[in-house]
Amino acid sequence: MQALKGFKDILPDEALLWQRVEAVARDVFRRFGFEEIKVPILEKTGLFARSIGEATDIVEKEMYTFSDRNGESLTMRPEGTAPVLRAFIEHALHLRRPINRLFTVGPMFRHERPQKGRLRQFHQLSVEALGSDHPRLDAEVIAMARQILVELGLSAALQLNSLGCPACRPAYRQKLIAFLGGHREQLCEDCQRRTESNPLRVLDCKSDNCRRLNAAAPAILDSLCPSCAEHLAAVRRDLDALQIPYSLNPFMVRGLDYYTRTTFELLTDALGAQSAVGAGGRYDGLVRQLGGPDLPGIGFALGMERLVLLLQEQNALPSSGPDLFLACLGEVAGAYGFKLLDRCRLAGLSALMDVQGRGLKSQMKQADRLNARFVLIIGEAELASGQAVLRNLVSKEERQIPLAAELTDLLRVVRAD
Ligand code: HAM
Fold first, then answer.
1. What is the CATH number of the domain that holds 385?
2. Ligand 1 center to residue 80 CA distance, Å?
3. CA distance 85 to 105
4. Which of 205, 252, 279, 297 is the most buried (most CB within 10 A)?
5. Distance between CA atoms of 398 and 406, rounded to whole angstroms?
């Protein structure tokens, strides 16, 4: 039996990197005042169709949708924003705080063509800040996304755009349709269809011809209404104040229809075709569109697989071994070691000992294979003298350690290295 295509097991060595990514992100979320929300993986299909948009790739062809036993159409969440907003509305969280800063961590599902950095089950660190349309919140959220990368030791280029609002986007859309209509024969088949249904998506097409044409298309930044233009200018001022570098990309469109005004992507060239480590933007009409109060919001999601891949490319593999391996020789030393093992663990060390009754040589091999940092060797002579050899398996240094009840020396040495 094998895992499904695009669905991946995360084995223990790699799981360590996942833990690190999540721990760093959670710490940044805490410092920025974000609270965790956990939402279900399964939702009614209509939630995603209404929020992400009927004419998007996700809704048109990538969702895992099925009828359950009652004949209801359900979908495995392709992203986190719609479920979090559904919960926000259902539990009237706006009454709890004027601004809700929420994050959720977990798997998402899209039936895409799997490749490096693109899976059918993938994981996001997904963030939503609901209740304010102040541009400072945009800058804050962008700064937080970037801070997670910085603290993981990763870098990505920030691109920024504004997709306007219901006051200015329709006019831009018409301008774009007129431009695309005038060059219909140069567009790929998909884009010929998209010209009417979702013309902004054409700007994101990867085919050579469309790309060439798109470079000459009208730019949305030239069509923003005064209030969207000022909003973008204010976001830029705050990013500058925090010395966060970015470039404007007026042709950045997102694969989800709910965005208004600020959109952004964090891009890397280290992952081949899948260059977005994270992306997000503002969605000021979405809460109301889903039946909630008229509250604005902004958020982003970072792709955890992509963060882990980047860490792997940097060879940032944390050591996966225990702090200490107890090599015990004989029954009496084994019984003593078992109690010592327990005390080491209670004192906070990760510690292991042999449970197969092996000899010294194979216990040492086992310690090596486990990638243990230290080995403490205990036989009858050690028990009699109350001293044992502690070997650092990295530096090969050895020292005598008293086997006193408090383990003071042992803990000091193992913790210090
Ligand atoms: P998204 O751009 O669709 O936005 O996805 C965000 C990130 O999830 C991407 O930049 C990428 O790192 C990762 N990702 C997406 N699809 C895959 C995949 N098939 N395999 C691996 N990683 C993937 C959203 O999902 C929005 N909900 C973000 C957001 C939150 N906007 C506002 N709030």
1. 3.40.50.800
2. 9
3. 15
4. 297
5. 20
Q: Which domain holds residue 23?
A: 12-168+224-313
Handedness of CA 179, 184, 199, 279 (dihedral sign): negative
Q: How far is the CA of 295 from the centre of ligand 1 (A)?
A: 23
Q: How many angstroms does the Cα of residue 281 sit away from the middle of ligand 1?
A: 11
Which of 37, 79, 146, 204 for a ligand 1 pocket mutation test, highest count of atoms within 8 Å of Cβ?
79
Cα 37 to middle of ligand 1, angstroms: 18
53 lines ligand 1 (CB under 6 A): no
Looking at 266, 291, 313, the residue that finishes a domain is 313
The answer to whether the CB of 305 is under 6 A from ligand 1 is yes
Count of structural domains within the chain = 2
pLDDT in tens, 305-355: 999 999 998 876 666 789 999 999 999 999 999 999 999 999 999 999 999
Neighbours of 201 (CB within 10 A): 20
Residue 77 Cβ < 6 Å to ligand 1: no
Q: Does residue 122's CB lie within 6 angstroms of at least one atom of ligand 1?
A: yes
78 lines ligand 1 (CB under 6 A): no
- Number of residues in the chain: 417
**CB–CB of 298/238 below 8 Å?**
no
Shared domain check, 277 and 149: yes
Q: What is the Å distance from ligand 1's center to 400 Cα?
A: 54
Looking at residue 273, what is its pLDDT? 78
Q: Are residues 34 and 162 in the same domain?
A: yes
- If DSSP codes are grouped into helix, strand and coil, which group holds residue 99? coil
| Residue 104, domain CATH | 3.30.930.10
- Give the number of other Cβ atoms within 10 Å of residue 186's Cβ: 13
pLDDT digits (tens, 9 = 90+) for 368-409: 999 999 999 999 999 999 999 999 999 999 999 998 777 888
What is the model's pLDDT at position 194? 87
Global pTM? 0.89
3-state secondary structure of 205: coil
